[in-house]
UniProtKB/TrEMBL annotation:
<dbReference type="InterPro" id="IPR000421">
    <property type="entry name" value="FA58C"/>
</dbReference>
<dbReference type="InterPro" id="IPR013320">
    <property type="entry name" value="ConA-like_dom_sf"/>
</dbReference>
<dbReference type="GO" id="GO:0016020">
    <property type="term" value="C:membrane"/>
</dbReference>
<comment type="similarity">
    <text>Belongs to the neurexin family.</text>
</comment>
<dbReference type="InterPro" id="IPR050372">
    <property type="entry name" value="Neurexin-related_CASP"/>
</dbReference>
<feature type="disulfide bond">
    <location>
        <begin position="890"/>
        <end position="917"/>
    </location>
</feature>
<feature type="domain" description="EGF-like">
    <location>
        <begin position="505"/>
        <end position="542"/>
    </location>
</feature>
<keyword id="KW-0472">Membrane</keyword>
<feature type="domain" description="Fibrinogen C-terminal">
    <location>
        <begin position="541"/>
        <end position="593"/>
    </location>
</feature>
<feature type="domain" description="F5/8 type C">
    <location>
        <begin position="36"/>
        <end position="143"/>
    </location>
</feature>
<keyword id="KW-0245">EGF-like domain</keyword>
<dbReference type="InterPro" id="IPR008979">
    <property type="entry name" value="Galactose-bd-like_sf"/>
</dbReference>
<dbReference type="InterPro" id="IPR000742">
    <property type="entry name" value="EGF"/>
</dbReference>
<dbReference type="InterPro" id="IPR001791">
    <property type="entry name" value="Laminin_G"/>
</dbReference>
<keyword id="KW-0812">Transmembrane</keyword>
<feature type="domain" description="Laminin G">
    <location>
        <begin position="752"/>
        <end position="917"/>
    </location>
</feature>
<protein>
    <recommendedName>
        <fullName>Contactin associated protein like 3</fullName>
    </recommendedName>
</protein>
């Protein structure tokens, strides 16, 4: 038995030899000639056709074997120029297989999406008729292909073209070529012009770079304009085109194009010389030997339509040839093998015992995986085994015996970069060495106590490590090359599930499928996008994690603050940080610039004009998108002046102006509060300027200070870009200007809605284009149990989102691989007439569906399949083309790939569909807190906080104030009429509107004072109700009308009253110091005169909020304030420290008409501040009728 070397052995796989017959056909088998059928039908067979010369192949046709049940149902196509180094043809860069036949007679014709240029064609059967064998008649279609080729040896060989007037550039420069690289780095082309400006195309680690240099010195660092392509050193032809139009340049590599902007000095740049293959010396203008020189072939090199290779072949005067340049493309034969998965292995013969007692093994590999077994062999003399494998992208060598590691070595780093890496393993004279990439000198050595040899011994394929997926080539054993073609022909070694004479590596990250700058990484089979710092989410970083406006944040329950907004969702505009002001009925988006403060100007000697430029915190495209999306935008523009004129007169030239609008802005000669083009200020429009002969106050040119201020609201003129002030040079002139931040409110997209009242009604829009990535989001509400939200059809492809049942939403589509569905099931009914949000996304990796805040459902896309979504019908919203299963209800804020569809405008002209959709409180009313009332608006809702003790956009902000001992807030209740002087007693009925049958009292307090009066309510009958903090041990037996009482999160307590009565004719409610305390007993009167020191917050007495009235509406409410009272946030949770001696406590109570008794409530003194136990008491006393 021969000694064996084992490569990439899968776990527990027996290496048994498989006998098969390989048939080579170097001619086209035409229809009707019987056809080709190998003896053995398996996937190791192929049919190869030699066309005699390189040909442009445009189509293939297949047919089964004549008069039989033998035909193929699917197959692969390979192409090659030399009969080696095959390349698999792929449709859409993903589909590798072609559909075959369904019988032996019909012809299946397939037109190649991109013509293939090759001399050899190889067809590999994948599947065939299960009741027959492999059988095939094949025809190819194409046309002759001619080309001019030049090759460079990577040394000093090169071409230099001096561009004469006949070759000088026209209105644009275009360079096209094809190249085949034998080395992964080198300069293909360099174009030089005046003043040392140059552009170069350079191959670097298999990627093509377009570089720009300024200056002729080699020390000048080049500027990288763009990088395209990957794995371009695969010894296959690649197409390149460089086109320059003015200041823009397009670079195309194969099918992918990038557009870049070049510096302004290149817009009038003229190319003087072109160098190919070798870097030119700046001194001698001769090629120099360098690793930067290109090793490979160029084909059909054209500059502005001129064939430069033909000029060189004809030895034209303007061409200089240096070094070993040939006009053919000879390439070395290098047979690679591809390990595709767990079942792949290659078993090669080893060596016999050499005189030196050592071993030498070498090979090259490339992969994307960090882990995988590369090679293993047994050590029969030691009874051990050697493993050479990748671990965390480093090369590791382990020698094991009886489960114990006798030796470990490691070398290399980042070996999963897709590049070819060489490995040498040598054992000579007692020293073991592994070397990775010899030129990099990365090696590791050891001196084992035993010889490392590969000798006779039982060999079994086993693997204790991850399987290797990648390519290998250039195998040597004891410096002898191993012929892998013999392995393929079963003359040498053994193998299984290998692709021989092809490296099937694919760069799934070139071009990157990751959007919005998300870094792409990959393994052999999948790619991964890291979206953590991009502001986007999903498999390809497609969908934004931010809302599109402040309005959307508000309806998620947020309050004022800084937020990132993404105005176009998944579109190209980046997220921006803005301030969202939600304290008013309108939600304002505030975008700052570099100078929003009042700025004083004084006369400048020799300066006639003063110019100010404003830089905004948002980028240009972000600003314009915000303005377009908003319903209203404004910006304050003010000018305070003293002998400094502003606009002069409408008939004269303006002395000052500003620029506003897109880009640098257009000149604007009107001021804030006036109309565009009027050359007026606000006072001129209103007719109340200080001098009626002028249209601006400042144009009166007075010695006194005056001002012209107002809001700019014309959206086409916003934002203000710069300001030019022209009358500041005179002695005595002074001015102060201010340009406020840009403020916008209203979201045209968020509330854009349509109501579908019939199942047969729908809206239609142009075809949706989401070939590679598509995201769809909208809100819906309905009372129907099913209906189609959206549908777009193609010839075979389609995309659809529907409510399939009252609890399920389905996202379905077909891109050519068969229908796929993603479903989300809800535990609650969706036809509850409340808004529900749907977000669907489909990309090349997966499809996802999200409903409200339920977990996301996903469906992976096939690894090898179609991925272009090709639609051609109209897009139907709320229905289908068949008018069946239509949707009844409302659809709102419908966006496709970040673009909002204007449902309302289309609904206005469509029968059965109404624009807009009212009834938002059913969905958003719960956002109104603390007794706030939800009020419907045409676009959205508003929280009315009039009946709440709180304020804010959702009635969630506590109204708090700091009290001093002399502070008093007295709220006077409305008196029904003036009491008669002679009345000694009045029937209680005259106070019926002020007679309370129940009290609701709530407040929050924070104090160190004890005892203290928190709240005092008096009546015209000398009755009163008091809430106070009483010291522990001081008993009081006053009667109460409170049935339960709760402090903070303590348990609710119930109490009994001793009598049944009513609190009649309420007169006033006092917080803090009580000035009128004649009706109180001595102790309570003394306590009332001390006042309250601390914080009171959210005081609520039945429907009255006295503290809120005093702080927010002191001039329009029946409130009298004496002493210092300052609004603060002392009552908020953020201002309270649970470990401090003073904290905020919440108190609430309610009266029920039943007999209750109460003395006091005991609470821990630590809650109030102090060292003693305290009692919180509520007193009621007075005359009962």
């Amino acid at each position: 038995e021969n000694n064996n070397l084992l490569l990439s052995t899968p776990q527990r796989l027996k290496c048994n030899k498989v006998l098969s017959i390989f048939c080579f056909y170097h001619f086209c088998v035409s229809a009707g000639a019987g056809g080709w059928s190998p003896i053995i039908s398996d996937r190791y067979q192929w049919l190869e056709v030699d066309l005699g010369e390189r040909t442009k192949i445009t189509a293939v046709a297949t047919q089964g074997r004549y008069g039989s049940s033998d035909w193929l149902t699917s197959y692969l196509l390979m192409f090659s120029d030399t009969g080696h180094n095959w390349r698999q043809y792929r449709q859409e860069d993903s589909i590798g297989s072609f559909p075959g036949n369904s019988n032996a007679d019909s012809v299946v014709h397939y037109k190649l999406q991109q013509p293939a240029i090759a001399r050899f064609i190889r067809l590999i059967p994948l599947d065939w008729n299960p009741n027959g064998r492999i059988g095939l008649r094949l025809e190819t279609y194409g046309c002759p292909y001619t080309s001019d080729v030049v090759s460079f040896d990577g040394g000093s060989s090169g071409l230099l073209y001096w561009l004469t007037s006949g070759l000088k550039r026209t209105s644009r420069d275009v360079v096209t070529l094809k190249f085949k690289a034998l080395r992964n780095s080198g300069t293909l082309l360099q174009a030089e012009g005046q003043e040392g400006l140059s552009l170069s195309l350079e191959l670097e680690r298999g990627k093509l770079l377009l570089l720009l240099r300024k200056g002729r010195t080699s020390s000048t660092e080049p500027q990288r304009l763009v990088s395209l392509g990957s794995l371009l050193d695969d010894q296959h032809w690649h197409h390149v085109a460089v086109e320059r139009r003015g200041s823009h340049l397009n670079l195309t590599v194969d099918k992918h194009t990038e557009r870049v902007q070049i510096p302004a000095e290149f817009s009038h740049w003229s190319i003087e010389q072109l160098s190919l293959g070798a870097v030119q010396s700046e001194v001698s203008q001769k090629p120099v030997t360098s690793k930067k020189n290109f090793n490979g072939c160029l084909e059909n090199l054209l500059y502005n339509g001129h064939n430069l290779i033909e000029l060189a072949k004809n030895k034209k005067q303007q061409v200089t040839i240096s070094g070993n340049v040939t006009f053919s493309c000879a390439e070395p034969v290098s047979v690679a093998v591809t390990f595709t998965g767990p079942e792949s292995f290659l078993q090669l013969p080893g060596t016999t015992m050499s005189s030196s007692g050592g071993v030498s093994i070498g090979f090259q590999f490339r992969t994307w995986n960090k882990k995988g077994l590369l090679l293993s062999f047994e050590l029969p003399q030691q009874g051990g085994v050697a493993w050479l494998y990748l671990s965390e992208a480093r090369l590791q060598l382990q020698i094991h015996k009886s489960g114990r590691a006798l030796l470990e070595l490691s070398a290399g780093a980042s070996l999963n970069d897709g590049q070819w890496h060489s490995v040498e393993l040598n054992s000579r004279q007692g020293r073991l060495t592994i070397t990775v990439d010899k030129e990099e000198r990365d090696s590791s050595q050891a001196s084992p106590s035993f010889p490392v040899t590969v000798e006779n011994g039982s060999q079994k394929c086993r693997n204790l490590f991850s399987v290797f997926q990648g390519c290998m080539r250039l195998f040597t054993v004891d410096n002898q090359n191993l012929d892998l073609i013999k392995v393929q022909e079963k003359q040498l070694g053994n193998y299984s599930n290998l692709q021989i004479d092809i490296c099937g590596i694919i760069d799934r990250c070139s071009p990157s499928p990751c959007e919005h700058g998300g870094p792409c990484s990959q393994s052999w089979t999948v790619f991964h996008c890291n979206c953590s710092d991009s502001g986007y989410s999903g498999a390809t970083c497609h969908s934004s994690v931010y809302e599109q406006s402040c309005e959307a944040y508000k309806h998620n329950g947020n309050t004022s603050g800084h937020f990132y907004i993404d105005v176009d969702g998944s579109g190209p505009i980046k997220p921006q940080l803005v301030y969202c002001n939600m304290t008013e009925e309108n939600t304002w988006m505030v975008i700052q610039h570099n100078n929003t403060e009042l700025t004083r100007l004084r006369p400048f000697t020799g300066v006639n004009q003063y110019s100010i430029h404003f830089d905004y915190s948002s980028e240009e495209e972000q600003l314009l998108a915000v303005i377009k999306q908003s319903e209203h935008c404004e910006q304050e523009l003010s000018y305070h002046c003293k002998m400094s004129r502003l606009l002069n007169t409408p008939e004269g030239s303006p002395l000052s102006w500003w620029f506003g609008g897109p880009g640098a802005g257009r000149v604007q000669t009107y001021w804030g509060g006036a109309q565009p083009g009027s050359q007026q200020c606000a006072c001129g429009l209103q007719g109340d300027c200080v001098d009626l002969q002028h249209y601006c106050n400042c144009d009166a040119d007075r010695m006194e200070w005056t001002e012209d201020s107002g809001l700019l609201t014309h959206k086409e003129s916003l934002p203000v870009r710069s300001l030019v002030l022209g009358d500041i040079q005179r002695p005595g002139s002074e001015a102060v200007y201010r340009v406020g931040p840009l403020q916008c409110h209203g979201d045209r997209n968020f509330w854009n809605a349509a109501f579908f009242d019939k199942e047969t009604s729908y809206l239609h829009f142009p075809t949706f284009h989401g070939e590679l990535s598509a995201d769809i989001s909208f809100l819906f509400k309905t009372m129907a149990s099913s209906g189609v939200f959206l549908e777009n059809l193609g010839i075979k492809d389609f995309i659809r989102i529907e409510l399939s049942s009252s609890t399920q939403v389905v996202f379905s589509f077909d891109v050519g691989n068969g229908p796929l569905e993603v479903r989300v099931e809800s535990s609650f009914p969706l036809n509850d007439n409340r808004w529900h949000r749907v977000r669907a996304e489909r990309n090349v990796k997966e499809a996802s569906l999200r409903l409200d805040e339920l977990p996301v459902a996903t469906q992976e896309a096939p690894a090898d399949g179609h991925f272009h979504l090709q639609l051609n019908s109209q897009l139907f919203i709320g229905g289908t083309a068949s008018r069946q299963k239509g949707f009844r209800g409302c659809i709102r804020s419908l966006q496709l790939n970040g673009v909002t569809l204007d449902l309302e405008e289309r609904a206005k002209i469509t029968p059965g569909v109404q624009p807009g959709c009212p009834g938002h409180c059913s969905s958003y009313g719960s956002l109104c807190q603390n007794h706030g009332r939800c009020v419907e608006r045409a676009n959205g809702f508003h929280c009315d906080c009039n009946l709440s003790a709180y304020t804010g956009v959702f009635c969630q902000t506590e109204v708090s104030a700091s009290f001093k001992s002399g502070t008093s807030v007295s709220y006077t209740f409305k008196e029904p009429y003036e009491m008669s002087r002679n009345s000694s007693a009045l029937p209680s009925s005259i106070y019926s509107d002020m007679t309370l049958r129940g009290e609701n009292v709530s407040l929050s307090f924070r104090t160190n004072q004890s005892p203290a009066l928190l709240l005092y309510v008096s009546s015209y009958y000398r009755e009163y109700l008091a809430v106070l903090i009483n010291k522990h041990g001081e008993e009081n037996t006053s009667n109460l009308f409170i049935s339960f009482f709760q402090i903070d999160q303590n348990a609710r307590e119930d109490f009994n009253l001793t009598s049944d009565g009513e609190f009649n004719a309420i007169k006033s409610l006092v917080l803090g110091r009580v000035h009128e305390s004649d009706d109180l007993d001595a102790d309570l009167s003394r306590l009332a005169s001390l006042g309250f020191t601390g914080c009171l917050s959210v005081v609520h007495f039945n429907t009255i909020s006295p503290l809120k009235e005093a702080l927010l509406r002191p001039n329009s409410s029946p409130v009298i304030i004496t002493g210092p009272l300052a609004q603060s946030n002392c009552g908020s949770a953020a201002s309270a420290n649970s470990y401090s001696a003073e904290n905020t406590h919440h108190l609430s109570g309610e009266k029920w008409r039943r007999h209750l008794t109460f003395n006091s409530i005991r609470i821990d003194s630590a809650l109030i501040g102090g060292t003693k136990l305290l009692y919180l008491c509520i007193f009621f006393t007075g005359l009962y009728l």
